[in-house]
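A reminder from the course coordinator: this example appears on the midterm review sheet, so study it carefully.

Given structure:
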């Protein structure tokens, strides 16, 4: 890795899912001069970072104060991974999302650029809406997209701000698709199906999937671009050692159905598939993404050549090595 890693690294959301996995991946590469900003207010978030090496933990409000004060305690930061956000796709408090996902990102980006620090932030595939306008990354296409929920809108709003203020020649935005894997236990209803289904199978022997309310898709035959967390953080770290800038999709490049995912979970547990299709909640039906698939051409053109773990292999690693023994990354 280049000299961006010679000084301290800031990871916001560092006790959360992708954030703690990123700290783990940095540790695996020999880096521990890491400042983590997050609220470790959940037992699973505490577990996420318990075995990791970093040299400071502070709350997000305290970080914002340090940024506003231009605190010398941040002077050594040369790489910022801004992964902290409210990631709930069902959150309806627009003002909260504006403060937490948009205003916070603006302030941190402005500070990082003034510090001449590399700024890499989490956007989301939720910004693409129902997918009818495509899912092509890059700043040139942003006006085509209309998110289906307030979370996606808050992420899209900063993408637009960055474009309109010419920031994408200096910063990196990452549109994460459906990331799953260890360290997501604290996310509640926002956990991946793999995590939820493991608990369902333990209790009932069955996985529940939503019925389709779209004429083009049979039950369980719609799906997502599912990406294993270990691949997601490898892609993320690439941008700290690259000079590439702009807005990039972070996904597998493939769409797999919910049925395929369910079958992979049962296979990992050496059990025959047993799937029950249930009604989709009324409030989701008009704002549900039936298909996502990341276009990875810009990621590849930027120089990232890492492989993507096949879905069945990724699910098996997660289930066998983490969910069954109850382990977190780094344990």
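Designed residues:
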């Amino acid at each position: 890795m280049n000299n961006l890693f010679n000084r301290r690294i800031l990871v916001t959301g560092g006790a959360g899912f992708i954030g703690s996995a990123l700290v783990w991946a940095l540790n695996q590469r020999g880096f521990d001069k890491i400042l983590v900003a997050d609220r470790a207010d959940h037992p699973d978030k505490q577990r996420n970072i318990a075995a990791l090496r970093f040299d400071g933990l502070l709350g997000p409000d305290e970080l914002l104060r340090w940024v506003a004060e231009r605190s010398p305690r941040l002077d050594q930061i040369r790489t910022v991974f801004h992964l902290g956000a409210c990631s709930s796709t069902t959150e309806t408090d627009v003002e909260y999302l504006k403060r937490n996902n948009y205003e916070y990102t603006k302030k941190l980006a402005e500070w990082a650029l003034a510090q001449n620090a590399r700024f890499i932030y989490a956007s989301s595939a939720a910004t693409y809406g129902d997918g009818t306008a495509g899912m092509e990354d890059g700043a040139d296409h942003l006006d085509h997209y209309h998110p289906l929920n307030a979370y996606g809108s808050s992420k899209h709003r900063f993408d637009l701000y960055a474009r309109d203020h010419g920031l994408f020649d200096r910063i990196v935005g990452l549109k994460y698709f459906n990331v799953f894997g260890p360290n997501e236990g604290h996310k509640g209803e926002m956990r991946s199906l793999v995590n939820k289904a493991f608990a369902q199978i333990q209790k009932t022997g069955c996985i529940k999937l939503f019925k389709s309310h779209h004429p083009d898709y049979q039950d369980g035959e719609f799906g997502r671009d599912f990406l294993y967390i270990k691949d997601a953080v490898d892609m993320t770290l690439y941008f700290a050692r690259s000079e590439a800038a702009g807005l990039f999709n972070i996904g597998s490049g493939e769409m797999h159905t919910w049925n395929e995912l369910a079958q992979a979970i049962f296979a990992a547990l050496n059990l025959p598939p047993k799937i029950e299709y249930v009604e989709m909640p009324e409030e989701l039906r008009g704002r549900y993404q039936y298909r996502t698939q990341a276009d990875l051409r810009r990621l590849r053109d930027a120089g990232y050549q890492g492989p993507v773990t096949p879905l069945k292999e990724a699910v098996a690693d997660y289930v066998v090595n983490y969910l069954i023994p109850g382990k977190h990354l780094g344990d």
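Residues 3-177+225-251+292-308 form a domain with the Rossmann fold fold (CATH 3.40.50.720). The mean pLDDT is 94.
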